[in-house]
Design goal:
Elements: E1 7-10, H1 16-29, E2 37-38, H2 53-63, E3 66-71, H3 73-76, H4 79-90, E4 96-99
Parallel strand pairs: 1-2, 1-3, 3-4
Length: about 110
């Protein structure tokens, strides 16, 4: 039996490196096991092979305890991120948003 998803991180696959750092930060800060986190572009947190992707993502977006939307130039262009954010917003359940900022080094 699969564990319940406690944390769902919505992000663009183009932001995998940033999503991976966020997962590492959260895992090091909280007592969450890998099966309790869904971050589809990060190894160890992806959907299992053969999963019905659309249905499983829909279910996990709606049922996860915590939902984080990783907002970036890439995620704004992603249909899946839009669907995930809209689904969570539509059920009037808490969403947390993290905005990627550009750091310019001189």
């Amino acid at each position: 039996m699969d564990m319940e998803i406690k944390l769902f991180i919505s992000h663009s696959a183009k932001d995998t490196e940033l999503a991976e750092k966020l997962v590492d930060l959260i895992r090091n800060s909280l007592n969450l096991k890998p099966p309790e986190i869904r971050c589809t572009s990060v190894d160890g947190y992806r959907l299992k092979g053969g999963a019905n992707t659309i249905e499983q993502l829909r279910e996990e977006v709606l049922e996860s305890e915590t939902f984080i939307g990783l907002i970036s130039e890439n995620s704004i262009q992603s249909m899946f991120v839009s669907f995930e954010l809209g689904a969570r917003w539509g059920i009037n359940t808490s969403c947390q948003f993290l905005h990627q900022i550009q750091v310019h080094r001189f």
